[in-house]
Structures are given as structure tokens and as C-alpha cells.
Design goal:
By secondary structure, this protein is of the alpha/beta class. Strand 12, helix 10 and strand 13 form a beta-alpha-beta unit.
Length: 370
């Protein structure tokens, strides 16, 4: 039970889907392994090793003990493509690392989820795109697409051509972020469309807004800034994000709101603090669970920062206008991190409950002679 998971594009929800796949397979198999043959975004571990960030997520959450080299054999750091074209990197060496890692994992695990990188063509310049890696490992493909119909099928068709080129069979398709009011229609008609490929629709995962909500940690990365207060709530999520530029008389704050306002608007900041302390005094166990992004050319005064710290409200100063800050947030795509346990659990429960694992295993068994 080994298969490769690739998406039709970036930010389709491949890693989220893989979380649910691995969790579901753990209930059916004694052990399940995870492999990310090629990574693009990596982090440095406490030992100095460079590892794909998704590998750290899966290794931590599923308590896997395989070496980083096995789970993340190849990385594409900045400048890697130029090094390859300059002859400093050999494809055969990369292939050897990937096949060795897979052989080691597959010898220990009856099931292995192999997560690709981006869409099917990523890595083509070094002759190691997702379809080529799947062909190298001789495993079938599961394709993840956005939860639509016509446009989703078009993207699937483009990715399928790469699978056909390298003779990689497709075990099934999973649609992610399907809107509830279109779910039955999409499930019916995408199933009909995929019959032309003799490929099953393995699941329609619903759209869950919470999985797209950013945390203060996301904002730290987005604005390249550190929290000035409220470090204990770095992983706090917000129901909505609000740009406040109105008069203080018109301003009121709701629980679980992220407030964006200029650092010079001390009236808005103090009104937020007043609301916080009023709630604490009347209901000591309650919390506004708010957050702040203060903007503008001038940072907040030390006295203001100290008051925000006393309230424990997570706050970042971003040296841009409030409009630019909101624009950056709206165009930012959040990723699931290993520390964000609430989002991980939500992803697993949502995905796992909407995938037909019997159909998945049946389809892979049908392709076992590949």
C-alpha cells in the first residue's frame, strides 16, 4: 500500500490531505511511513540538519522515528537550479538518494504515503518532477485538485498528461475545499467525468474556513517581525480581521478579532485595552482572545507596548501602512505547522471522514502489477 500524492497546483491542500490520509491508514495498517522525496521549503533542526518543513510536521505529530535523511532525502534550496545547470549537481545522485530512502522505508512499513512537491511539473528542470519520481519509485498516483468541476477537471487533465508520459497509473482523485451547497453536484458529475480515465473519485473534502485562518506566527513570518507582546499566544486563531481607522466613538471590538490600526492611534489601542480589562474584571475566566497589528512609519511608544504586554495581548508592529498590511494578509496563504495542534486535528478529522479508504485500497490493489 504505497502511493504518491501530488496536487494540480500550489496551495490546493496537498499536505492537509496527506495528514488525513496517513491518519486513516494508521487505523488500517500496523504502521504507516511518510516520505517527502523532494522539498523546497526547509528548516534547520537543532542538530543543524536541513529538513523539509512538512517532514517535521508529520514526524512530530505521528511520532515517527525515521531519520531525516530517509524522510527528506532531497532539497531544492535557493540557487539549486543554477547549480544543476552549471553541472554541480547530478540527477543520478539525487535519484539514488530518493530510491535508497524509499527502499529503506518500504522495507519497514506496509503502507507509505509519498508526498510530492507542488504540481506535476515541479522539478522538471532537473528531470525529477512528481510524475518522474513516482515512475522512479514504481508507485501509483493520487491527484489532489481544488473542489470545482470544469476548471478542476481541466487542471487534472493537464497533470494527467505527465502521468501518461511517464507511465504512472492514477489510483484516484481527491477534491479539496468543496463548498457544501455544491458538494452533491460535484461528487456526481466529477465521478462521471473521471470514468473516461477509469479512475475513481476517492473523496470530496469540504471547505473549512478555520483551516485557512492565520495565526500570529503566520504574521510574524509575513511581516518579518517578532511579537512585542503576548508570546504565549503565538498560535492564536481569529474569527475575523478588522482594519480600524474610524473614530473611537464608532469603535467596538468583538471576541477573537485581530485588529489592524496605526501605531499612532493610541485612542483605539487604549479602547481595546479598556474593553479587555472590563471583561476580565466582570468575567475573570473569559478572554477577548484578540490580537493586534500596529502599523505606520513610527513604532508604538514604549508606554503603550508595556500596557499591551500587561494585558498579554499578542501584538506585532509592521512598518507599513494599514492598507498595505491588510493587502498582504489577504494575499497570504497559511500553511499548517507542527505547533498548530488545533489546525492539525481539524485537518485530520475533516479529511479522514471524507475519503473512501476502501475504494483507495481497492484501486491501488488493482494497479499492484505496475
Amino acid at each position: 500500500m504505497k502511493f504518491f500524492v501530488a496536487a494540480t497546483g500550489q496551495n490546493v491542500g496537498k499536505t492537509t490531505t496527506c495528514l488525513g490520509l496517513l491518519a486513516g491508514l494508521q487505523k488500517r495498517h500496523a504502521t504507516v511511513g511518510y516520505l517527502k522525496p523532494i522539498g523546497q521549503e526547509y528548516v534547520e533542526t537543532e542538530t543543524g540538519a536541513h529538513v523539509d518543513k512538512d517532514v517535521l510536521l508529520f514526524r512530530s505529530h505521528f511520532n515517527l522515528h525515521d531519520s531525516y535523511e530517509e524522510m527528506s532525502p532531497v532539497l531544492f534550496p535557493r540557487g539549486f537550479t543554477r547549480d544543476y545547470l552549471d553541472g554541480k549537481v547530478e540527477t543520478n545522485d539525487l535519484m539514488q538518494k530518493i530510491t535508497s530512502a524509499y527502499a529503506s522505508l518500504s522495507s519497514r512499513y506496509p503502507a507509505v504515503v509519498i508526498e510530492g512537491t507542488g504540481h506535476m511539473g515541479v522539478g522538471s528542470i532537473v528531470n525529477l518532477n512528481n510524475a518522474q519520481v513516482a515512475a522512479l519509485l514504481k508507485v501509483p498516483m493520487v491527484l489532489i485538485a481544488s473542489g470545482g468541476l470544469g476548471s478542476s477537471y481541466d487542471e487534472l487533465e493537464l497533470n494527467r498528461t505527465q502521468c501518461e508520459k511517464y507511465e504512472v497509473p492514477i489510483a484516484g482523485v481527491i477534491l479539496n475545499r468543496v463548498l457544501d451547497d455544491k458538494r452533491e453536484m460535484i461528487q456526481e458529475y466529477m465521478g462521471k467525468a473521471l470514468r473516461k480515465w477509469n479512475t475513481p473519485l476517492l473523496g470530496c473534502i469540504p471547505y473549512v474556513p478555520f483551516l485557512s485562518t492565520p495565526t500570529m506566527r503566520d504574521f510574524e513570518q509575513l511581516f518579518q517581525a517578532k511579537l512585542l507582546s503576548g508570546g504565549l499566544f503565538r498560535w492564536r486563531h481569529f474569527h475575523d480581521i478588522r482594519l480600524v481607522a474610524t473614530s473611537v466613538e464608532m469603535y467596538s471590538i468583538m471576541p477573537k478579532q485581530l485588529i489592524i490600526t496605526p501605531a499612532g492611534r493610541e485612542d483605539i489601542i487604549l479602547a481595546t485595552l479598556t474593553r479587555y480589562w472590563d471583561l476580565k474584571i466582570s468575567h475573570p475566566d473569559d478572554d477577548l482572545e484578540t490580537g493586534m497589528i500596529l502599523t505606520g512609519r513610527e513604532p508604538p511608544k514604549d508606554s503603550i507596548v508595556e500596557q499591551i504586554r500587561k494585558a498579554g495581548i499578542p501584538m506585532i508592529y509592521a512598518p507599513v501602512s494599514s492598507f498595505i498590511a491588510l493587502k498582504m494578509i489577504n494575499s497570504h496563504t497559511t500553511k499548517i505547522r507542527k505547533e498548530d495542534s488545533a489546525k492539525i486535528q481539524e485537518a485530520i478529522s475533516t479529511v479522514e471522514s471524507h475519503i473512501d479508504f476502501d475504494l483507495l485500497e481497492k484501486s491501488i490493489a488493482r494497479l499492484s502489477q505496475y
